[in-house]
Input
Amino acid sequence: TLRLVALKTAPVYLMKKNPSSAKTPVRLFVFSCPTPWGDFYAVHSARGLVSLDFPGCPVRPRAENGTKASAAVLARHKILCRWLCRTLSGRRAALPRALRLDTRRLSPFVRRILGALASFPRGKTLSYAALAEKCGGKHLVRAVARGCGANPFPILIPCHRVIYSNGGLGGFSGGIQWKKRLLVLEKLCQPGPQCI
Output
């Protein structure tokens, strides 16, 4: 069931590619997405998904109540919810092509990190150092870790699969418990204290 969330409306501005241009207001809409693991919150623009937030986490960009969204935005949100429920139920589901991501707010470096993560195969983990190597060099390991933390599309772009070189879990924007749950779901670590 699709539930709309009423939040305070606030103007949201995203910069155009040309820095000399004036800020352009962009309408953002927030919806809840009920799953077996709780209600996630999705923020959409007309271009696509802007962010996905875990249950109990604050919604990142300010957004309007989803009741004013277009039919295309509503349709994309329903696709997201179906995919998320399938994925969190343990069933493998390819990311639908109709689900577009709006990455305008992200820096080119964070987009490069997310691109590398999106191409990483399911069922494997990757170290922060290896990801840094793919994104320009091992000297970027801390910047890559921060970029993973800035991922507005957790689960869709699997930053939870990035771990320390020594096997430690590292951090996660949704909290370490969410990272553990996702890794256990994907059978990348065993439930219990072994999943450090």
Remarks:
- The radius of gyration is 17 Å.
